[in-house]
Amino acid sequence: MYIHRNFEKVLAKALKQTKIVLITGARQVGKSTTVQVQYPNYTYITLDDENELALALNDRTLFFRDKKFPLIIDEVQYAKELLRAVKLETDRRQSKGQIILTGSQTYELLSASAESLAGRVTLLEMPSLSARELYGVDFQNSFLPDANYIEKRGKKIIPYDGLWEKIHRGFMPDLLDSERDWEWFYRDYVRTYIERDIRNIINIQNEMKFRALLVSIAARSGQLLIYDDIARDIGVDIKTVQRWISVIAASGLIKILHTYKTNAISRIIKTPKLYFMDTGLLCYLVGWKTPESARNGAMSENIFETFVISEIIKSRLNNGQDIQDSLFYYRDKEKREIDLLIKEGNTLYPIEIKKGATPDKSWIKNFSVLEKISDISIGPGAIVCQINHAMPVSEQVTALPVEYL
Fold first, then answer.
1. Helix residue ranges, H only, 146-278
2. Which pLDDT score is estimated for 268?
3. Angle between helices 207-218 and 279-286 (to 10 degrees)
4. 164-198, pLDDT tens digit by residue?
5. Which domains, ranges and CATH numbers included, belong to the chain?
6. pLDDT digits over 33-59, tens only?
7. Between β-strands 20-24 and 121-125, what pairing exists: parallel, antiparallel or unpaired?
8. pTM higher than 0.90 for the full model?
9. Is residue 274 helix, strand or coil?
10. Hey, which of 13, 95, 262, 350 would disulfide with 381, CB 3.0 to 4.6 Å?
């Protein structure tokens, strides 16, 4: 069964504006299925096909000679050399939306596309299923805790029954099939990721070390990303850890949030935080084999925070919005922390994330540090938690059920 994706709208918009659209994203998030279902009139080619791949690598003129436009070229990361030919082919045609490219090895693919397709391509990142999509919520707006968003979102509330079962199972489309074994899926997912993606980008002399890195960063989801600690844990040098994590981030498996920097506050630390984009993969890697162990275990707060952050990121990606320059967190040398800052225009919106269901004013005590910032406005804040209904915590802060994401 195909679930319509919120991403479809931003893809349709992009195809009306540029000749080429490149869709990146982690493996198995639904890129290929979405473009094939939504654009059945496009000629579909996958470079998983060895014959097509050989043509793409060895005879790019012949590759395009008998292809009927418009085209979908899937798994384009296997033949980055094809992108120059894509440019030439689209330059011969005037219409928009001529070619949809998809790829999962974002690390090198983005640099190749920037060089070959500058001015002709729209880059989009497709996330895995969102909670909105899983629960059938018809709502497109990006999460923002202002009055307008809260009012509109409040009219579309559907209870997130069995939420921790969803958090534990994860948000990959294949896992919608209840017969699909959870552990087998993620075991094969990790193997495929290492064998098909990572080996093509970096030279892994010891796959067990790389697997140990995945486990180590999964255990740190929602925490500070301290490279030295990880390097000590797995027994490799810090430069290797930094290189490997940059590749994992570019593959769409994790997102890294940086601290919000301003001259008005001089004691901000520079250490970033990392978050897995799929909580099912996170639970698999750290060994939480049941929803109960995820909900009640030592990492439950971090797992819940990871879920919330990933859902907010998905809401932005599904609207084609920027992540790097709009999502931050706050932490200073006095260890005062704000889980998330959303920068929209010249306004910062502070967000605190708690697994609990009874909001307390102490949860937002650190919001006051933002008053020192004079060059930007501070908008309404929110506590995202497991409360049953939205309620004010202060004049400027609302406690929101997780269903408001």
1. 147-154, 163-169, 182-192, 207-218, 227-234, 238-250
2. 85
3. 110
4. 999 999 999 999 999 999 999 999 999 887 777 77
5. 7-125 (3.40.50.300), 131-404 (no CATH)
6. 999 999 999 999 999 999 999 999 999
7. parallel
8. yes
9. strand
10. 350
